[in-house]
């Protein structure tokens, strides 16, 4: 499926649903409308029962990144293309839909280091043992979301949603790691309206992720390749990439699986929304079978709060939002051996497990936007600022060694967008600025007992490179231009051009460069 197929399919679906429902009202800019209505910041699918009308968007974009100011999982030279479309549609007084469909393709040069698609997501990771094996990496991603709500009466509504993402990633140079990713989310919720300006909601949440990964060697087969197993804080073991017994197999896909179970509570009104969510995560890496090992098993709680507050004064809108999050993830490494009884197949015998990692993650963000003259398709002026912070604290125990690592990162950004109206045309000029800084301790090591030799290693080259990327002070600026054409009341196309540049404020010690540039072209429409 490619861009034109995605856009055609979803536009056809939106048109069909619109024709089946009430007569359409003049459309508004999709992002402006969803940003200024607290209803759209609630994850409970029952909440969309409060929406009346039809808003849709479709976009195709191309992005080009250049510059060696990049983390371990990024490329100094990459491009990405994709398309997405999204709709909210009420087809009757009782039934409302929300749908989203997207596709993207990424290609990056000089990529190595991290093997898995999203290293920050996992308690254990794998890295190539040397920078000499970097090469091109390709990734293709599809995503689909569908939600429906039904009003049970004047005060009650129920809804369900299904969110699915699939991706595949391949490195096209030895060692050729390949991954298949699946992320599926289900939500079922109810909402209650005790009064006209108040909604109470409850939703149950289930999420399942699965990344299946293996290595491959297709060139000179007599050359040895090695892989680091990062068990936390860039501390772990080194093993050869061969056979099916080590952490990474070259013959079979090996799964990294996660299950999330939780509940979410919502309180919302005409000018605010609040959502509190609690989840429990459990997962493992390896194969749960008698002849193959489950290497790691992990679990832990997560909690988050999301709040949005809207104030309207005449033609102006003020929007403030707060997001807070915390997660604790503990990882256990199983102790086992392979045994082959005479005349029988090889099997795995477990002898317990060791608790090797406690990982704490904290996130916080605060943002504010002022929309001036917000009566038309777009506001006359938008001015905003945001502060984001995150922290990661790793406590690793590979007996008799331990490692404590802390990383804190803060960024602040601001933007201004001015819209100029001329007949049916809207010209938008925008500028933005960002400042980023961090601090912490990349490693604090110690031992609980004296030892002569060990197979544990510290991956210092990768550790210091990523720590410098996360904590070095940096500044950035961006410019954007958008042309919007009000073709009709139900079709508004636009084209957007933007470019942003960022640079470190000091010469790097471990990174290959100190600057990065991102150019973006977007073609889209609201309908």
Q: How does this structure look, described?
A:
With 527 residues, the chain is mainly beta. It is 7% helix and 64% strand. The protein has one domain (3-526). It has helices at residues 3-20, 30-35, 460-471, and strands at residues 54-66, 77-90, 95-111, 125-128, 135-151, 156-171, 178-195, 198-214, 226-230, 235-240, 254-269, 272-289, 292-313, 316-339, 347-372, 381-398, 401-422, 425-447, 456-458, 474-485, 492-504, 515-526. The radius of gyration is 25 Å and the shape is globular. The protein is built from 3 helices and 22 strands. The two termini are 22 Å apart. The strands form 2 sheets. It has an 18-stranded antiparallel beta barrel. Mean pLDDT is 93; it is low at 10-24.
Explain the layout of strands and helices.
Elements: H1 3-20, H2 30-35, E1 54-66, E2 77-90, E3 95-111, E4 125-128, E5 135-151, E6 156-171, E7 178-195, E8 198-214, E9 226-230, E10 235-240, E11 254-269, E12 272-289, E13 292-313, E14 316-339, E15 347-372, E16 381-398, E17 401-422, E18 425-447, E19 456-458, H3 460-471, E20 474-485, E21 492-504, E22 515-526
Antiparallel strand pairs: 1-2, 1-22, 2-3, 3-5, 4-9, 5-6, 6-7, 7-8, 8-11, 9-10, 10-19, 11-12, 12-13, 13-14, 14-15, 15-16, 16-17, 17-18, 18-20, 20-21, 21-22
């Amino acid at each position: 499926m490619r861009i034109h197929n995605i856009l055609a399919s979803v536009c056809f679906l939106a048109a069909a649903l619109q024709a089946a429902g009430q007569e359409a009202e003049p459309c508004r800019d999709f992002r402006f409308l969803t940003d200024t209505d607290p209803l759209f910041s609630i994850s409970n699918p029952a909440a969309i029962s409060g929406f009346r009308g039809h808003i849709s968007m479709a976009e195709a974009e191309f992005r080009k990144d250049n510059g060696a100011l990049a983390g371990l999982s990024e490329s100094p030279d990459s491009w990405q293309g994709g398309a997405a479309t999204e709709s909210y549609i009420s087809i009757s007084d009782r039934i409302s839909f929300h749908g989203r469909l997207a596709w993207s393709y990424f290609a990056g040069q000089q990529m190595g280091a991290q093997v898995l698609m999203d290293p920050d997501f996992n308690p254990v990771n794998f890295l190539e043992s040397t920078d000499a094996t970097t090469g091109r990496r390709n990734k293709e991603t599809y995503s689909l979301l569908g939600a429906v709500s039904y009003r049970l009466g004047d005060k009650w509504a129920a809804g369900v949603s299904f969110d699915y993402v699939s991706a595949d990633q391949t490195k096209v140079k030895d060692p050729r790691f390949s991954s298949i990713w699946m992320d599926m989310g289900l939500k079922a919720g109810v909402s209650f309206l005790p009064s006209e300006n108040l909604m109470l909601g409850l939703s149950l949440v289930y999420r399942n992720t699965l990344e299946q990964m293996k290595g491959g060697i297709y060139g000179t087969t007599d050359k040895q390749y090695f892989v680091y197993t990062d068990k936390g804080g860039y501390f772990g073991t080194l093993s050869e990439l061969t056979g099916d017994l080590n952490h990474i197999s070259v013959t079979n896909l090996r799964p990294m699986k996660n299950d999330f179970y939780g509940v979410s509570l919502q309180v919302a009104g005409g000018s605010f929304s609040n959502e509190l969510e609690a989840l429990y995560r459990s997962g493992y890496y390896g194969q749960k079978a008698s002849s193959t090992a489950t290497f790691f098993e992990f679990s832990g709680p997560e909690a988050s709060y999301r709040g949005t507050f809207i104030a309207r004064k005449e033609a102006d809108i003020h929007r403030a939002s707060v997001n807070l999050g915390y997660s604790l993830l503990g990882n256990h490494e199983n102790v086992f051996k392979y045994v082959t009884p005479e005349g029988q197949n090889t099997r795995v015998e477990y002898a317990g497990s060791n608790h090797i990692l406690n990982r704490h993650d904290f996130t916080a963000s605060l943002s504010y936007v002022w929309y001036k003259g917000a009566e038309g398709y777009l506001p006359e002026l938008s001015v905003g600022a945001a502060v984001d912070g995150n922290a990661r604290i790793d406590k690793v125990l590979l007996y008799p060694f331990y490692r404590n690592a802390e990383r804190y990162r803060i960024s602040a950004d601001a933007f201004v967008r001015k819209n100029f109206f001329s007949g049916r045309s809207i010209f938008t000029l925008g500028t933005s600025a960002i400042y980023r800084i961090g601090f912490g301790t990349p490693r604090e090591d110690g031992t609980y007992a004296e030892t002569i030799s060990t197979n544990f290693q510290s991956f210092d080259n990768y550790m210091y490179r990523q720590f410098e990327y996360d904590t070095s002070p940096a500044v950035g600026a961006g410019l954007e231009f958008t042309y919007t054409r009000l073709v009709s009341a139900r079709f508004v196309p636009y084209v957007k051009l933007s470019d942003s540049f960022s640079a470190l404020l000091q010469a790097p010690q471990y990174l290959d460069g100190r600057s990065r540039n991102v150019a973006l072209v977007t073609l889209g429409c609201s309908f």
